[in-house]
Amino acid sequence: MVVNSAAEFQSTLLTGVTKHATSKQLLISTVTHCISELRNVGERGTVAEQGMDAKCALVLDMDNINVAGTRYETHPPSPQVGDPLHYDSFLQRICDQYQARFGS
User: Fold this and answer.
1) What are the CA-CA distances from residue 38 to residues 26, 53, 102 (Å)?
2) Contact of 42 with 52, CB cutoff 8 Å
3) Across the strands, what pairs with 71?
4) Is the pLDDT of residue 104 over 80?
5) Fewer Cβ atoms within 10 Å of its own Cβ: the N or the C terminal residue of the chain?
């Protein structure tokens, strides 16, 4: 899941700049809530089970105006190294599942 933490952004569907939040604290709270909701989505332990194969939350600061200035956020509330939603954990889970399913 990609969460945009930009306080303002240019929508690709609407004209003008949209303000996400009125304060930095509200913005952090919103990002935290989105990540928390992803934690509630089930992951399956085996091929026979239901749920996602793996989950990841990427937090970006992207205003859609200065695209070159887009930043990958690494500070909280972004998932930190060791968190199951961190990108490294996501890749490891995918690799482990591939090995379990197709490896020798």
Assistant:
1) 19, 13, 27
2) yes
3) 61
4) no
5) C
